[in-house]
Amino acid sequence: MGKRYLWLGMVAAFIFFCLAGCKAEEKEGNGKIKDLEFTVLGEENVPEELKQVIEEKKGKEFKITYQDGDFLYICVGYGKQETGGYSITVNDLYLTANAIYVDTNLIGPEPENRELYHAQETEGASYPYIVVKMQYLDKAVVFD
Asked: Which of 2, 26, 30, 62 is in the most buried spot, having the most CB atoms within 10 Å?
């Protein structure tokens, strides 16, 4: 009976170390290799087909990619906002061994300007989104 528990304990330890080793290797694969060069596009420079997709999705948050020839477009939308005055920053865009990682942030209007945006009837709701253009890489895109 004691040998059985010893054997089970050794098998459990082996499985534990195998899983722990896989996890460490996975984390190493997500290390930043390099920052990627990109351009933030104005609406007038977004390909027409991509504009149509954005128009359909803009009412809710979205994260999409689009490839056109040698270029990859990464799009992040923040859905309907009650006012205008929002901006979006790209905090990080980098390459790892496994993927392209992108991190963006929605910045609201300054507190002292919120009443101004609420008061402007012509402003109304807004649908902030960002389109980033970069060289195409055959990697998955991970949105942080």
From this structure: 62
